[in-house]
Amino acid sequence: MHEMSLVQGLLSQLHELAREHNKTKVITVCMDIGPLSGVVIDSFQFGFDILSAEDPLTRSASLVIESTPATYLCCGCGKRIEEELKPEACPACSETLLSPEGGDDIILRQVQME
Amino acid sequence: MCDSCGCDLTPDHSHDSKVIDVHQSLLAANTAMAEKNRVHIEKMGAVAINMISSPGSGKTTLLEKTIEAMKDRLRIGVIEGDIETDRDAARIRAKGVPVIQLTTGGACHLDAAQIHKGLHLLEKEPGGDQLDLLVIENVGNLVCPATFDLGEHHRVVLVSVPEGPDKPAKYPKAFISSQVFIISKTDLLPYFDFPVEEAKAEALQLNPNLLVMDLSATSGEGFEQWLHYLTTICQK
Lengths: 114, 236
Fold this sequence. Notes:
The structure holds two protein chains of two kinds. Chain A is α+β, with helices and mostly antiparallel strands. Chain A has a domain at 3-69 and 103-113: hypothetical protein PF0899 fold, CATH 3.30.2320.50. In chain A, 28% of the residues lie in helices and 31% in strands. Chain A contains two helices and six strands; from the N terminus they run H-E-H-E-E-E-E-E. Chain A has helices at residues 3-21, 41-53, and strands spanning 26-33, 62-67, 70-74, 80-83, 98-101, 106-113. In chain A, the strands form two sheets. A three-stranded mixed sheet of chain A has the order 2-1-6. In chain A, helix 2 (41-53) links the parallel strand 1 (26-33) and strand 2 (62-67). In chain A, helix 1 crosses helix 2 (41-53). The radius of gyration of chain A is 18 Å and the shape is elongated. The two termini of chain A are 31 Å apart. The relative contact order of chain A is 0.26. The longest helix of chain B has 16 residues, at 28-43. In chain B, helix 1 runs parallel beside helix 4 (112-124). Chain B has helices at 28-43, 59-70, 87-93, 112-124, 167-170, 172-176, 196-206, 223-235; strands at residues 18-25, 47-52, 76-82, 99-103, 133-137, 154-160, 180-184, 211-214. By secondary structure, chain B is an alpha/beta fold. Chain B contains eight helices and eight strands, in the order E-H-E-H-E-H-E-H-E-E-H-H-E-H-E-H. Chain B has one domain: P-loop containing nucleotide triphosphate hydrolases (Rossmann fold, 3-Layer(aba) Sandwich), CATH 3.40.50.300. In chain B, strands 4-3-5-2-6-7-8 form a seven-stranded parallel sheet, sandwiched between helices. The A-B interface holds A 1-2, 5-6, 9-10, 13, 17, 21, 23, 27-28, 30-31, 36-39, 64, 75, 96-100, 104-114 and B 7-9, 13-14, 16-27, 29-30, 107-109, 111, 143-144, 146-148, 172-173, 176-177, 204-209. Strand 6 of chain A pairs antiparallel with strand 1 of chain B.
């Protein structure tokens, strides 16, 4: 359940942003979370719901999570395949050894505050 | 997309508010600290490995046997991570190398800030400031530790024979982010259904760059390959 500590990091980043921009209330938080990030999106949402409710800054904030695709490099023909779920085989040469690249982002993209 | 301000939100929100583009990883603070740790470890003269596995896969036993075999050739230091107790550190201390125990008090993984603290503590131990190899034994957990860079140079993931061969498929992140995959406790192969070659192939499907080895710290079978690997990374 490391999602909880990631949410704690998110909340402290939101406090910094609120101070910096002189705002008191977070309305929406937009995150990009990759399929290879090791983060369970439901658990992240659950952690956010619990921790944000305890904090006046984030009490009424909603969280929008988008899953970004990962890239898989085919070890046979070198083709790069962009998919959210790992393909069984390379569509070009049927090689099954596909090396993942990226897809491990846990990014705070955008925050709306007032 | 909202036409007024270009944000990604529904069009009906108020424009007294401000939309801030951040585009920063939640792990940015951890990653920055991990980079500092890497520099710190290199100043100590060491190469660091981060060992990740479920509880009971044999990380500590592997480490004990490794120290016995290598301590005349390599200066080894250890940072032990556990939720509670300093039992693992006591086992390693008995082997005569500098070690410190980090207890997370409930957290399921080590992070770079804890390792930063650990490095300073380790330097105060006799012989702890000049090392060839620093081993960080993470909290027993195959999921959460995989997300946090600690400042290590190499990541080693272990699965023991009694755990079964399906761990790479079920817990992919640890295998995708590691350089080495060890199948441990191979002395128990006669008693468990663990098709070694299938497990290796499955891990390589996830990460074709993995160096895979199978060994038993108890019987010593396959141990040479591990010691050879450690010798090689410490020469760099």
